[in-house]
Amino acid sequence: MSTGESWASSHIARETMRANRSRDTGPEKALRSALHASGLRFRVAARPIPGLRRTADIVFRPLRIAVYVDGCFWHGCPEHYTAPRANSEFWRNKVEGNRARDRNTDELMDAAGWTVVRVWEHEDPLLAAERVAALVRERRAAEEARRHSPRTARQ
Fold this sequence. Notes:
Layout: H1 11-19, H2 26-37, E1 43-46, E2 56-60, E3 65-70, H3 88-111, E4 115-120, H4 125-148, H5 150-154
Parallel strand pairs: 3-4
Antiparallel strand pairs: 1-2, 2-3
Helix pairs in contact: 2-4
């Protein structure tokens, strides 16, 4: 873009986009609140893999679980995404780029032994929290069983 050109088609669109938060969004806060109410503790807006410039919304570091709350517009939700008519090519490329980065993040996290949970912003935060909590409990039980197995106790 040359100087003076904008990615937003109007002043109103530009202000709307600037108002979008990259963290502490309503859906993130609702999910965190539900997880906290269920007794879980976690890191917020943390990089699971040091040196990798990818920030997860919620991180259970010892269990290697990273939760991303994806916005329907920014991540191209198959149920709710509608492409803007203005600057349509720009927004198509932007959303496709975000989705490609999400896939790459999932692959990198998986290769490093992490489990990624993706939650759409439109999902019920209580149901999403139950899904995440079940995974956390499962991982904790497996870790506890591993620690108390006769084989690892002798080592």
